[in-house]
Amino acid sequence: MARVPHGQIVTKAFPVLSASRTPDIDLSDYRLRIYGSVGNELSFSWEQLMAMPMSKKVVDIHCVTRWSRLGDTWEGISLKYLLGMAKPNGQFLMLRSSYVSYSANVPMEYVNDDSMVAFRFNGKPLEKEHGGPVRAFIPALYFWKSTKWLDGIEVMDEDKPGFWEKRGYNMRGDYNKEERYWKGLNFVNKLMFFGQKDDDKENKK
Ligand SMILES: Nc1nc2c(c(=O)[nH]1)N[C@H]1C(S)=C(S)[C@@H](COP(=O)(O)O)O[C@H]1N2
Ligand SMILES: [Mo]
Q: CB under 6 Å to ligand 1: residues?
Protein backbone atom coordinates (compact mmCIF):
# COMPACT_ATOMS: atom_id res chain seq x y z
CA MET A 1 0.00 0.00 0.00
CA ALA A 2 1.44 3.37 -1.02
CA ARG A 3 1.69 6.00 1.69
CA VAL A 4 -0.57 8.49 -0.06
CA PRO A 5 -4.01 6.98 -0.69
CA HIS A 6 -5.53 7.12 -4.15
CA GLY A 7 -7.03 10.49 -5.05
CA GLN A 8 -5.18 12.49 -2.36
CA ILE A 9 -2.78 15.43 -2.80
CA VAL A 10 -0.08 16.10 -0.19
CA THR A 11 0.03 19.62 1.25
CA LYS A 12 2.06 21.42 3.90
CA ALA A 13 -0.88 23.67 4.69
CA PHE A 14 -3.27 22.75 7.48
CA PRO A 15 -6.69 23.91 6.29
CA VAL A 16 -9.37 24.62 8.90
CA LEU A 17 -12.61 22.83 8.09
CA SER A 18 -15.41 23.59 10.48
CA ALA A 19 -19.13 23.36 9.93
CA SER A 20 -19.65 25.83 12.80
CA ARG A 21 -18.09 28.65 14.75
CA THR A 22 -15.07 27.83 16.94
CA PRO A 23 -16.35 27.35 20.50
CA ASP A 24 -14.70 28.60 23.67
CA ILE A 25 -14.24 25.69 26.04
CA ASP A 26 -14.12 26.44 29.75
CA LEU A 27 -11.79 23.79 31.18
CA SER A 28 -13.12 24.27 34.72
CA ASP A 29 -16.41 22.61 33.78
CA TYR A 30 -15.20 20.41 30.92
CA ARG A 31 -16.17 16.72 31.04
CA LEU A 32 -15.35 13.92 28.63
CA ARG A 33 -18.16 11.37 28.86
CA ILE A 34 -17.96 7.77 27.69
CA TYR A 35 -21.45 6.30 27.71
CA GLY A 36 -24.05 4.24 25.88
CA SER A 37 -23.52 0.53 25.37
CA VAL A 38 -20.77 0.22 28.00
CA GLY A 39 -20.32 -1.79 31.16
CA ASN A 40 -18.89 1.21 32.95
CA GLU A 41 -20.07 4.73 32.19
CA LEU A 42 -17.32 7.30 32.68
CA SER A 43 -16.98 11.05 32.99
CA PHE A 44 -13.57 12.69 33.25
CA SER A 45 -12.64 16.20 34.27
CA TRP A 46 -9.78 18.02 32.55
CA GLU A 47 -7.49 17.37 35.55
CA GLN A 48 -8.29 13.66 35.48
CA LEU A 49 -7.47 13.50 31.77
CA MET A 50 -4.19 15.35 32.24
CA ALA A 51 -3.12 12.82 34.88
CA MET A 52 -3.46 9.90 32.42
CA PRO A 53 -0.65 8.36 30.38
CA MET A 54 -0.09 10.27 27.14
CA SER A 55 0.94 8.69 23.89
CA LYS A 56 2.81 10.38 21.06
CA LYS A 57 2.44 9.23 17.45
CA VAL A 58 3.76 10.35 14.10
CA VAL A 59 0.86 9.89 11.69
CA ASP A 60 -0.59 11.03 8.36
CA ILE A 61 -4.00 12.62 7.90
CA HIS A 62 -6.23 12.36 4.85
CA CYS A 63 -9.17 14.70 4.32
CA VAL A 64 -12.03 13.66 2.08
CA THR A 65 -11.67 17.02 0.28
CA ARG A 66 -8.41 15.47 -1.06
CA TRP A 67 -5.64 17.04 0.97
CA SER A 68 -3.24 14.91 3.00
CA ARG A 69 -0.58 15.89 5.53
CA LEU A 70 2.27 13.50 6.20
CA GLY A 71 4.20 12.86 9.40
CA ASP A 72 2.70 15.20 11.98
CA THR A 73 3.24 14.47 15.65
CA TRP A 74 0.04 13.99 17.62
CA GLU A 75 -0.16 13.62 21.40
CA GLY A 76 -3.05 12.53 23.56
CA ILE A 77 -4.61 9.67 25.45
CA SER A 78 -4.94 6.40 23.59
CA LEU A 79 -8.59 5.85 22.68
CA LYS A 80 -8.14 2.10 23.16
CA TYR A 81 -6.94 2.76 26.70
CA LEU A 82 -9.94 4.99 27.50
CA LEU A 83 -12.39 2.54 25.96
CA GLY A 84 -10.79 -0.30 27.91
CA MET A 85 -11.85 1.40 31.13
CA ALA A 86 -15.43 1.79 29.88
CA LYS A 87 -15.82 -1.89 28.91
CA PRO A 88 -17.70 -1.34 25.65
CA ASN A 89 -20.31 -3.82 24.47
CA GLY A 90 -21.27 -2.15 21.16
CA GLN A 91 -19.14 -2.22 18.01
CA PHE A 92 -19.68 1.40 16.90
CA LEU A 93 -18.76 4.80 18.30
CA MET A 94 -20.31 8.21 17.92
CA LEU A 95 -17.72 10.89 18.59
CA ARG A 96 -19.57 14.02 19.66
CA SER A 97 -19.02 17.66 20.38
CA SER A 98 -21.97 19.06 22.30
CA TYR A 99 -20.43 22.55 21.94
CA VAL A 100 -21.20 22.69 18.22
CA SER A 101 -23.57 19.70 17.75
CA TYR A 102 -21.08 17.81 15.58
CA SER A 103 -20.87 14.02 15.52
CA ALA A 104 -19.10 11.32 13.54
CA ASN A 105 -19.69 7.57 13.64
CA VAL A 106 -16.69 5.24 13.74
CA PRO A 107 -16.67 1.43 13.64
CA MET A 108 -14.66 0.05 16.55
CA GLU A 109 -12.43 -1.95 14.18
CA TYR A 110 -10.90 1.36 12.97
CA VAL A 111 -9.84 2.33 16.47
CA ASN A 112 -6.16 1.37 16.39
CA ASP A 113 -3.06 2.15 18.45
CA ASP A 114 -2.76 5.58 16.78
CA SER A 115 -6.33 6.62 17.68
CA MET A 116 -6.52 9.10 20.51
CA VAL A 117 -8.19 11.87 22.35
CA ALA A 118 -5.68 14.46 21.21
CA PHE A 119 -4.40 17.61 22.92
CA ARG A 120 -1.14 18.44 21.18
CA PHE A 121 -0.06 18.79 17.56
CA ASN A 122 3.56 19.09 16.43
CA GLY A 123 4.77 19.86 19.95
CA LYS A 124 2.22 22.55 20.81
CA PRO A 125 -1.27 22.61 22.29
CA LEU A 126 -3.87 22.10 19.55
CA GLU A 127 -5.02 25.41 18.18
CA LYS A 128 -8.65 26.29 18.85
CA GLU A 129 -9.57 26.24 15.16
CA HIS A 130 -8.16 22.72 14.90
CA GLY A 131 -10.25 21.48 17.80
CA GLY A 132 -8.23 22.71 20.76
CA PRO A 133 -8.07 22.02 23.58
CA VAL A 134 -9.29 18.50 22.79
CA ARG A 135 -10.32 16.58 19.68
CA ALA A 136 -10.76 13.02 18.58
CA PHE A 137 -8.05 11.68 16.29
CA ILE A 138 -8.90 8.61 14.18
CA PRO A 139 -6.10 8.46 11.60
CA ALA A 140 -7.31 5.18 10.02
CA LEU A 141 -10.29 7.03 8.49
CA TYR A 142 -10.81 10.25 6.54
CA PHE A 143 -10.29 13.27 8.78
CA TRP A 144 -13.97 14.23 9.11
CA LYS A 145 -14.25 11.34 11.60
CA SER A 146 -11.88 13.19 13.97
CA THR A 147 -14.39 15.28 15.90
CA LYS A 148 -13.04 18.61 17.11
CA TRP A 149 -13.94 19.93 20.62
CA LEU A 150 -14.75 16.38 21.65
CA ASP A 151 -16.74 15.87 24.85
CA GLY A 152 -18.74 12.70 24.23
CA ILE A 153 -17.85 9.18 23.18
CA GLU A 154 -21.02 7.17 22.78
CA VAL A 155 -20.74 3.41 22.29
CA MET A 156 -23.54 2.10 20.07
CA ASP A 157 -24.83 -1.41 19.33
CA GLU A 158 -25.88 -0.33 15.84
CA ASP A 159 -24.19 2.00 13.38
CA LYS A 160 -25.89 5.40 13.03
CA PRO A 161 -24.97 8.34 10.80
CA GLY A 162 -23.29 11.40 12.29
CA PHE A 163 -23.34 15.00 11.05
CA TRP A 164 -21.68 14.56 7.63
CA GLU A 165 -22.87 10.98 7.18
CA LYS A 166 -26.44 12.30 7.16
CA ARG A 167 -25.39 14.75 4.47
CA GLY A 168 -23.89 12.32 1.99
CA TYR A 169 -20.56 11.24 3.47
CA ASN A 170 -19.74 7.54 3.71
CA MET A 171 -20.79 5.62 6.83
CA ARG A 172 -17.27 4.21 7.20
CA GLY A 173 -14.81 6.53 5.43
CA ASP A 174 -11.87 4.15 4.84
CA TYR A 175 -9.42 6.10 2.61
CA ASN A 176 -7.70 2.93 1.45
CA LYS A 177 -11.01 1.99 -0.14
CA GLU A 178 -11.83 5.56 -1.17
CA GLU A 179 -15.06 5.50 0.81
CA ARG A 180 -15.81 9.19 0.39
CA TYR A 181 -19.49 9.76 -0.23
CA TRP A 182 -22.67 7.89 -0.89
CA LYS A 183 -22.53 6.13 -4.25
CA GLY A 184 -24.45 8.78 -6.24
CA LEU A 185 -22.36 11.60 -4.85
CA ASN A 186 -19.18 9.69 -5.57
CA PHE A 187 -20.06 10.03 -9.24
CA VAL A 188 -20.44 13.83 -8.94
CA ASN A 189 -17.15 13.93 -7.08
CA LYS A 190 -15.45 11.98 -9.86
CA LEU A 191 -16.74 14.44 -12.46
CA MET A 192 -15.26 17.29 -10.41
CA PHE A 193 -11.84 15.67 -10.50
CA PHE A 194 -11.93 14.24 -14.02
CA GLY A 195 -8.74 16.12 -14.97
CA GLN A 196 -6.70 14.36 -12.31
CA LYS A 197 -4.27 11.69 -13.49
CA ASP A 198 -5.41 8.23 -12.53
CA ASP A 199 -2.08 6.45 -12.80
CA ASP A 200 -1.84 4.91 -9.34
CA LYS A 201 -4.57 2.32 -9.40
CA GLU A 202 -2.25 -0.14 -7.67
CA ASN A 203 -2.79 1.90 -4.48
CA LYS A 204 -6.23 0.44 -4.35
CA LYS A 205 -6.85 -2.72 -2.37
N1 LIG B 1 -16.62 19.55 15.82
C2 LIG B 1 -16.23 19.43 14.54
N3 LIG B 1 -15.30 18.50 14.24
C4 LIG B 1 -14.88 18.37 12.96
C5 LIG B 1 -15.43 19.16 11.92
C6 LIG B 1 -16.42 20.12 12.27
O7 LIG B 1 -16.95 20.85 11.43
N8 LIG B 1 -16.78 20.24 13.60
N9 LIG B 1 -15.01 19.00 10.63
C10 LIG B 1 -14.41 17.69 10.30
C11 LIG B 1 -13.76 17.71 9.00
S12 LIG B 1 -14.76 17.62 7.62
C13 LIG B 1 -12.40 17.69 8.89
S14 LIG B 1 -11.65 17.49 7.39
C15 LIG B 1 -11.54 17.90 10.06
C16 LIG B 1 -10.78 19.17 9.85
O17 LIG B 1 -9.94 19.44 10.92
P18 LIG B 1 -9.06 20.75 10.88
O19 LIG B 1 -10.00 21.93 10.81
O20 LIG B 1 -8.23 20.70 12.10
O21 LIG B 1 -8.23 20.66 9.61
O22 LIG B 1 -12.25 18.00 11.27
C23 LIG B 1 -13.41 17.24 11.37
N24 LIG B 1 -13.95 17.43 12.69
MO1 LIG C 1 -13.29 17.13 5.81
A: 14-20, 63, 97, 100, 102, 130-131, 143-144, 146-149
